[in-house]
Amino acid sequence: MTPFSFERAEKASASAGVRYLGGGTNLIDLMKLEIERPERLVDVSRLPGDIRESDGAILIGASVTNAALSADPLIRERYAMLSTALLSGATQQLRNKATTGGNFLQRTRCHYFYDTARACNKREPGSGCDALDGHNRFHAILGASEHCIAVHPSDMAVAMAALDAEVRTITADGEGRTIPATDLLRLPGDAPERDHVLDDGELIVEVRLPANPPARQLYRKVRDRASYAFAVVSIAVALDVEDNVMKNVRIALGGVAHKPWRADKAERALEGAFVDASVFAQAADAELQDAVGRGDNDFKIPLVRRLIITALRDVTDLSKEHSA
Ligand SMILES: Cc1cc2nc3c(=O)[nH]c(=O)nc-3n(C[C@H](O)[C@H](O)[C@H](O)COP(=O)(O)OP(=O)(O)OC[C@H]3O[C@@H](n4cnc5c(N)ncnc54)[C@H](O)[C@@H]3O)c2cc1C
């Protein structure tokens, strides 16, 4: 491991050149592999952080653990798909350590990123991407570039994107800013080494969930094993149904892109439409019109199509009506 200085934060403040340590469940592994080499590490996992209501919105401290967030009564009641998404990730032991801030900023699980003998533009800019023509079963079908086809692995971030969460930060010059969760992580373009839009030393302090989320919510994760496996693909759906018409439709997809993929084309196809299986199929097709497979991951395109359709059937209760 490369030498580094370590300090424990006493209060939430940001400094250039610093890397923050949450639960360490991703960063420490990457430091051991020397893929990450921070010179100055500041532990923010013990900063005071809680989950509280403010004018109907929910504020979540960045140091709140995934376990605490998933179990919180307000989250379970009003933002159930966030609780489901969190509980589908990792293990209870990992969730006890992993923090809200760290979960957003965890790095890809692309095996070429972890294998330092292989070319990876994310790990070493300009070195190439062995995943393009390699084993790419887990890789992106939307928003990828010729430089990187890695996907973001978080379940939590997918639910946060669909819930229109906002991430509040402090920059190194002491300014506060608010970033929509859908914009926190970025597509690879020609700079896949940059996972997110935060500046050097910018600290996540809080996440805000807006009041009055849609009443019907669902998070579904497709994976190779029933537990302790990253998503092959996943979906978070939230919507309301009034007089059989869909409203406030929000959909995000996981395991398909370098960031949680807000399915805005599908949302537009569904908003204001009657609950109807053919509309679900049109929405899925609209979202996937630009999807591109790289060989091993071609199967994700029909899989995501089916996932969108079945998730919509279940969240609108159409399946129950049909089977009644
Ligand atoms: C075996 C295993 C299985 C897993 N399975 C899943 C899974 O199925 N689904 C899933 O979603 N995840 C899974 N994970 C990943 C796990 O959820 C993440 O490792 C965890 O959420 C990261 O949180 P952390 O607090 O430990 O982050 P850390 O490892 O401490 O940090 C991660 C990154 O976030 C930065 N950071 C941390 N806090 C802040 C802050 N407040 N402000 C700015 N930057 C910050 C760090 O500098 C670092 O770059 C798995 C992990 C393991 C080891």
TrEMBL record:
<dbReference type="Pfam" id="PF00941">
    <property type="entry name" value="FAD_binding_5"/>
</dbReference>
<dbReference type="InterPro" id="IPR016169">
    <property type="entry name" value="FAD-bd_PCMH_sub2"/>
</dbReference>
<feature type="domain" description="FAD-binding PCMH-type">
    <location>
        <begin position="1"/>
        <end position="214"/>
    </location>
</feature>
<dbReference type="InterPro" id="IPR036318">
    <property type="entry name" value="FAD-bd_PCMH-like_sf"/>
</dbReference>
<dbReference type="InterPro" id="IPR036683">
    <property type="entry name" value="CO_DH_flav_C_dom_sf"/>
</dbReference>
<dbReference type="GO" id="GO:0016491">
    <property type="term" value="F:oxidoreductase activity"/>
</dbReference>
<dbReference type="InterPro" id="IPR002346">
    <property type="entry name" value="Mopterin_DH_FAD-bd"/>
</dbReference>
<dbReference type="InterPro" id="IPR016166">
    <property type="entry name" value="FAD-bd_PCMH"/>
</dbReference>
<protein>
    <submittedName>
        <fullName>Xanthine dehydrogenase family protein subunit M</fullName>
    </submittedName>
</protein>
<dbReference type="Pfam" id="PF03450">
    <property type="entry name" value="CO_deh_flav_C"/>
</dbReference>
<dbReference type="InterPro" id="IPR016167">
    <property type="entry name" value="FAD-bd_PCMH_sub1"/>
</dbReference>
<dbReference type="InterPro" id="IPR051312">
    <property type="entry name" value="Diverse_Substr_Oxidored"/>
</dbReference>
<keyword id="KW-0285">Flavoprotein</keyword>
<keyword id="KW-0274">FAD</keyword>
<dbReference type="InterPro" id="IPR005107">
    <property type="entry name" value="CO_DH_flav_C"/>
</dbReference>
<dbReference type="GO" id="GO:0071949">
    <property type="term" value="F:FAD binding"/>
</dbReference>
